[in-house]
Amino acid sequence: MDKKLYLYNTLSRKKEEFKPINPGRVGMYVCGPTVYGDAHLGHGRPAITFDLLFRYLQHLDYKVRYVRNITDVGHLTDDGDQGEDKIGKKAKLEQLEPMEVVQRYKLRYQRNMSQLNVLSPSIEPTASGHIIEQIETIKAILDAGYAYESRGSVYFDVEKYAKDHDYGKLSGRKIEDLYSTTRELDGQQEKRSSLDFALWKNASPEHIMRWPSPWGDGFPGWHTECTAMSCKYLGSQFDIHGGGMDLLFPHHEAEIAQSVAAHGHETVNYWMHNNLVTINGQKMGKSLGNFINLDELFEGTHKLLERPYGPMTIRFFILQAHYRSPLDFSNEALQAAEKGMDRLMKATALVSALKASDESTVDVSSLQEKCYAAMNDDLNSPILIAHLFDGVKMINSINDGKASINAADLKILQDLYQQFVYDILGLQGEQQSNESSSDAMDDVMQLLLTLRQDAKTNKDWSTADKIRDELKAMGIEVKDTKDGATWELKN
Predict the structure, then answer these.
(1) DSSP run (H or E) holding 67
(2) Which residue has the higher pLDDT, 456 or 217?
(3) Among 73, 251, 349, 427, which one is least packed by beta carbons within 10 Å?
(4) Please, which residues bridge with residue 278 across strands?
(5) pLDDT for res 82
């Protein structure tokens, strides 16, 4: 069976056979969220897209180091190096320390990713935790002559770089065209050209997030973090860099320029970009105010939702479209995804109950080959799902006695659905997910009741009462009995 994997490389604009730099090992870096608000459906798509790739590479027996960053400094309200830091602005509004904002939304993001059954990356670094590495990267770019200092800030010299290299090669933009589309901004006089972007920004007196540097107190530019952190953890040459197509320019274009300037060569072999989630054809995002938080989707609380949709419905909805195709939100599409996933999961559960016969009247090997061919064709998850639904007909026919399968083919079929539905697509039944949450709730409540009983034994009545009262405020009623205590959720 041919298991050669072909991935679409945004840089070459074609599918290429995947050949890792080091046999058997893969280095993958994906741009994660800026944590200044709750994760929305638009955040779910890149997470699930590259989770699919992560899972499939591991299935192909690669040892994968998957790095997904957290942006917690340097991303300004205007991508043109102006405005307030998004984290700092949120901190002022909520009267919190910036790192409190980061911690709050990072934990919520991670919780949402767990609900979507997105595997944790190997490393999840933060920009604020790698200031030294970013300063060293900037020094290297300055030494190479592709950056300059201006009023305590450091800017990348795009014009000078473009004379020696192809700036715009990833996005397909020409530098001459960029001049006409780049608007003048306040503070533009610091730059030699409107195209130049910040590697380090001088911090104004009121700026909260700041660090010492050779150029004065300031903070790194938005693009600098990924160049510094990807090379720290994956080396100066690694296999895959991914993210949403909205990052293609200027973020990823800037990363290529920074890497070439700092290291003398490009660092990434395969650039991959997922398409966007849209609502009525318009990109979903915080800046446009048209986003739906993942919690709102799961709870059905957003005005655009007819009802709640479980995390696995959302995951299946995203996987039903190829990652490079646009995906438009609608209640109808989510409800169709829910029905389709339910049918697939029931058939997957049924596979384990099938009985083997002496001979097979079904072609399991062909189904297996088609499933691998779909995934090897640039992670074509919708085609894979279509083949799995063809297999559902096979499973139902065997179960109804209209077809037969021998023991060897049955083992292949059972492994196929275990591997592709659960391990690669990462699906699990909503009931299974809810049961896991219920088990965790039981464990937490048992711990709290034990702590309360210990407090009562030690005559620490105030602590015992506080636990009971706090739980009551959350809608959980504790009842003392002669055998201990019980609890129940109240509506």
Answers:
(1) strand 63-68
(2) 217
(3) 349
(4) 283, 328
(5) 75
Q: In what order do the strands lie in the sheet with 153-156?
A: 147-150, 153-156, 197-202, 218-220
Condensed to tens digits (0 to 9), the pLDDT of residues 211-265 reads: 999 999 999 998 999 999 999 999 999 999 999 999 999 999 999 999 999 999 9
DSSP state of 377: B
Q: From the DSSP assignment, how many helices (H) and strands (E) are in the chain?
A: 16, 17
Residue found by looking up tokens 């409190």 in the block: 100
Which among 425, 231, 415 has a CA at the least distance from the CA of 316?
Answer: 425
207: Cα within 13 Å, side-chain hemisphere: 20
Domains of the chain: residue spans and CATH:
8-274 (3.40.50.620), 279-424 (1.10.730), 434-489 (no CATH)
**pLDDT > 90 in the chain, percent:** 72
C-alpha to C-alpha distances, 116 to 313, 319, 430, nearest whole angstrom: 9, 12, 10
Instruction: Tell me whether the omega of the peptide bond preceding residue 250 falls within 30 degrees of 0, making it cis.
Output: yes
The mean pLDDT of 117-142, rounded to a whole number, is: 97
What size, in residues, is the chain?
491
Contact 347, 394 (CB under 8 A): no
Residue 138 in contact with residue 254, Cβ under 8 Å?
A: no
DSSP line for 226-273: HHHHHHHHH-SSEEEEEEEGGGIIIIIHHHHHHHHHHHSS--EEEEEE
Residue 436 has pLDDT above 60, yes or no: no
Long-range contacts, 445-452 (Cβ 8 Å, 24+): 445/476, 445/487, 449/478, 449/484, 449/485, 449/487, 452/478, 452/485
Between strands 484-489 and 25-30, the pairing is unpaired
Residues 6+ apart with CB under 8 A from 417: 347, 348, 351, 388, 391
Tokens 């998957």 locate to 66
Average of per-residue pLDDT across 296-302: 95
Q: How many CB atoms within 10 Å of residue 238?
A: 23
